[in-house]
Amino acid sequence: MKTHKIAVMAGDGIGVEVMPEALRVLETVSKKHGIALEYETFDWSSADYYQKHGQMLPDDWFEQLRGFDAILFGAVGWPAVVPDHISLWGSLLKFRREFDQYINMRPVRLMPGVPCPLANKKPGDIDFVVVRENTEGEYTNLGGRIFEGTEREVVIQESVFTRTGVDRVLKYAFEVAQSRPAKHLSSATKSNGLAISMPYWDERLEQMAAQYPDVRWDKHHIDIMTARFVLNPEQFDVVVASNLFGDILSDLGPACTGTVGIAPSANLNPERRFPSLFEPVHGSAPDIAGKNIANPVAMIWSAAMMVEFLGQGQAPYQAAYTDMMQAIEHCLAQGPRTADLGGKATTTEVGQAIAAMI
Amino acid sequence: MKTHKIAVMAGDGIGVEVMPEALRVLETVSKKHGIALEYETFDWSSADYYQKHGQMLPDDWFEQLRGFDAILFGAVGWPAVVPDHISLWGSLLKFRREFDQYINMRPVRLMPGVPCPLANKKPGDIDFVVVRENTEGEYTNLGGRIFEGTEREVVIQESVFTRTGVDRVLKYAFEVAQSRPAKHLSSATKSNGLAISMPYWDERLEQMAAQYPDVRWDKHHIDIMTARFVLNPEQFDVVVASNLFGDILSDLGPACTGTVGIAPSANLNPERRFPSLFEPVHGSAPDIAGKNIANPVAMIWSAAMMVEFLGQGQAPYQAAYTDMMQAIEHCLAQGPRTADLGGKATTTEVGQAIAAMI
Ligand SMILES: CC(C)[C@H](C(=O)O)[C@@H](O)C(=O)O
Ligand SMILES: CC(C)[C@H](C(=O)O)[C@@H](O)C(=O)O
Fold first, then answer.
1. Mind listing the domains of chain A with CATH numbers?
2. Which atom of ligand 1 is nearest the CA belonging to A77?
């Protein structure tokens, strides 16, 4: 079987603490299923690296990384040392854009043992995935200021949607929907307020839908969609959204299932021309960093998504993915648990427990 | 006492059904407290009007309305007859912008008798207000398409933030916060993704904060803020947000308190140079229109906000506002209730009951 090259970049804060647990679980599961993973560790994208080099990545980061199959990413951001806009645009957002990781997959699933903030929900009730556009749209530094510093100051920010960018995420989302039993796609829009960009998104959606007659689809204005996440999350199966709307929905969704702290994500370049990147949705969490109390589940779950993606449907990888997810569910249901879930276990203990369940 | 001129514009769908109930309650309460309200009814901003005139408003709408103190507005939108972008940009969004109703006040309050989708919350736990910028920001039709209809198509949409526009909503929000016991302001941002507009918003926030040393303030990225609405809504007192973020938060907030169906809003021109507009957050709801089953609470609550605004703090108006709110709470707690809250009462019965409780 192919050896997969994984770039390991723990980053900062709790990223550094949860990464070893993902590697521990990967070690166990890859041995069990004969999956060959080869790691190389990078100290980039961290406050330390920034302090030494004045930037988040070396100049030749693209060439150094492009041969990898995946980047396993901890967390970026340490505002005490690096302003957020530098750390994010200097690493994470750069990877997404330059490695053309145009799909950000963010599962939203109510897990056993995780207290749900919504009344009367049980595991199984909420189980959908947000497919977020990850390279364009509202996330830009295009625009600027005029009459700066005066009463007349005007600030413009431009969103940019391309035919290529919109179509490929819609296509991917329809395909994800098609592969699931419910075959249902919900698209986020705000065509009544954002009068140029979102009508375009909607137009392309309708065009694309024609090619997937077996997928039921609907669209929701983002305002009412967030309300529906809370009032009736059962209705969602696959949600497709622009960069900004997807960002919002993929924090709100996990919150509706109890915590953003265990949510994983996969930043995919589906064509595999460039490495894909797997990272927890949570950040570096300076407030709890260094205490070995962070919950490693999001990181381990992200690693599971990596294994699944690398396998392209091959049985050993699917089995490994299933093992990892079952171990995560088992651990969430029975403990040990970290403090965020009301337990007293350390990051290490949870990682060990999940590895042991495989 | 001054006679207040009210333009009554029921619009379409359930707007037409809930409006008489607001007028019924206003009639009772204004008599009781000696408040002089004078109504003029307009058939504008409706599908009927559009069918007759090909537009939502007459050409001289501005002149005809500008002498009014307030517009009591039902609901706009009847997609079977008028495309949404025409009905909205042709009336509601026009009023907001041209009458410079730059503040959109949207209370979020868990009311007695309304089942809360969040576990373990009781009335009193959730009670905050969203102060939404209402004239600029992300809501524009600036931008356009290039290479239209081809694979190279690019669509640009511009957001526009002005010093004037940002400062005045922040100032208003700080003042609202200052007037409340908790004196706490939370601002929505996304400076890490929207790299031009939101850093500007944050800068102005910090500037403004310096003038309100007694107000505690914080800022939240919009993604995690939506999560906090669900996980810990108790922490919010006053929330200030841009047009788009405010739109999202003021649907999500009411959802967290049980239903968007009873949420009111006040589109204010605080200087009173132009009429302010009071409307339910809900729309025209074609699916339940014409059946006399719509919940009139949002409309009546909006009318209560109108009375309070008109009174500028004078005692009879405050007393009238309090009476209206108590009657609403009483009715929600004890019934009668419309179908959306699990009851069987008609729109009329609920309106009558609320009027009778005053
Ligand atoms: C850190 C930030 C730029 C990022 C985003 O908004 O994409 C994060 O919120 C995420 O969702 O991965
Ligand atoms: C109908 C729509 C344009 C409007 C808005 O987005 O402002 C509505 O959602 C609201 O919140 O009043």
1. 1-102+269-358 (3.40.718.10)
2. 1
